[in-house]
Amino acid sequence: MLSDRRQKVLAALIEEYVARALPVGSRTLTERYQLGVSPATVRNELSVLEDGGYIAQPHTSAGRIPTDQGYRAFVDDLLSQEGGEQEDERCQEAADKLRKSASELDDLVEQTSEALTRLTDCLSIVLAPSVLDLHIKQLSLISLTPTNALVVVVTEDGQVFNRHMDFAEEVSSDELARVQHLLNEVFGGNTLHDIEHGLGRGMSEAFADPLVRMALDEVLSCLREGEGSRAHSLGFSSLLSQPEFSQSEAVLPVMQVLEDDTVLLHILDDTACQTDGRPTVRIGSENQASQLSGVSVVASRYGRGDSAGVVAVIGPTRMDYSKVLRAVRIAGTALGDL
User: Fold this and answer.
1) Phi, psi for 191 (deg, rounded to 5)
2) What is the pTM of this model?
3) 296 three-state secondary structure
4) Which segments cross the bilayer (predicted)?
5) How do residues 271-299 score in pLDDT, each as one tens digit?
6) Which of 128, 129, 194, 247 is the most exposed place for a label (fewest CB within 10 A)?
């Protein structure tokens, strides 16, 4: 546990390092920050912080930079101060603006990703709620030609998925309407998990009809495809523009993880494990994936229950944590009541 004075010196060093990405010396801290102590005291506190593993000196003659442990102490202090009525109101106002600018969920997700990137200068990711755990609000089979139809699925949170379905023989609009009615009966009150495990009212009788079975398979495939495209990412260029990633060997491991949807979904679901509404912060070596040891992940859940989504920001460990935490909170609030 750091004393108030050491916490203040550490916070000043981190603020300076975040702003300039250069090692910070005691003279810089004394001249630019009102620490209320003498230069000699600042030098002494920096030595204590270095001995404790909170900061490090990359070269003998250089200033100091924060370590993962130093960032952790700084972030924990930020989180302990989080909240307050005025801050809640500011976040709510910003979230309301996002909601008003979007006509439907897909627009809101995209605009939330854009806002996160704009506010943080980092990579932003909005992970939509898992389709597997959502109830189906509406299922439509739209006849395009006698041998082709469009499957449209609307989930309870407003996500929309569609898929074309081809028939070996002609199918009338009346037949499609009958199948649509049966499928809506099957999906009523059930999730995709329920359907795949053979649960639900009237399902056995419905499956006996080949056309119903075919349409059901198409609906399930449609939803599985939707599950694979849950992540909406923006800001790769912002991430690459950071000085930490100017060399390809530094950025390639990160890009490999981010390009693998399966790994990315696991990382975000695991990172955003907090259920009390507070963001989770994984700093450098705290990330389970070793490829992410040079970045921090700030993530928070939104929504309710098992189908909750995730908003996240990925950036260098030298990110502006105060700004990022606020941006993630705004994004989660904007999406949280859908």
Assistant:
1) -100, 175
2) 0.78
3) strand
4) none
5) 666 656 678 899 999 998 888 898 999 99
6) 247
